[in-house]
Amino acid sequence: MAISKTLNAKLNEQIGNEFFASQTYLAIACMFEEMGLKMLAKLFRKQTEEEREHALKILDFLPAVEGTVTIGAIPQPTAKYPSVLAAIEASLEHERKVTAQFNELMTLAIKENDYAAQSFLKWFIDEQVEEVDQQIHLAQIARMAGDHYLQLEAYVANALLRE
Fold first, then answer.
1. Distance between CA 37 and CA 84 in Å, rounded?
2. Which of 59, 47, 56 has the alpha carbon at shortest distance from 22?
3. What single string gives the DSSP state of each residue in 32-89?
4. How far apart are the first and last CA of the chain?
5. Which tens digit of pLDDT belongs to each residue from 71-102?
6. What's the predicted TM-score (pTM) here?
7. Has domain 5-160 been given CATH number 3.90.930.60?
8. Is 7 helix (H, G, I), strand (E, B) or coil?
9. N or C: which end of the chain has fewer CB within 10 A?
């Protein structure tokens, strides 16, 4: 069964959303790198690659279900944030937004009785639970650390980058 034009278009939008997320995390990683926060920079560069992989996963799925791929323009991400915590909280809000986007895609796939798309999207739904949870936890630790960035760096190195 070929994917519907509506769901195909929405998945193409999501490819752009994932590339935007990748660019957003790269901008945050660069900010952390400039601040000398190597572990946070490394964590967000890892996130950059994960988001890019998500886009490519969708890109590979569409031809398999007789869909077409269109890659639109990617908006420029915010390059600087007023604080480390602000950057982390922005990433949390972005993950929540992406979760809502995937939930909308799943709702559409269910409405259209597209079982292949539902199966495909389930992986992203599960992935978003992990992503949001990690960002919530990172934001909690960042709030507790306050301006003690070395404590936050140690936490990232010992807990998040070992996973």
1. 10
2. 47
3. HHHTT-HHHHHHHHHHHHHHHHHHHHHHHHHHHTT------PPPPPP---SSHHHHHH
4. 38
5. 999 999 998 999 999 999 999 999 999 999 99
6. 0.93
7. no
8. helix
9. C
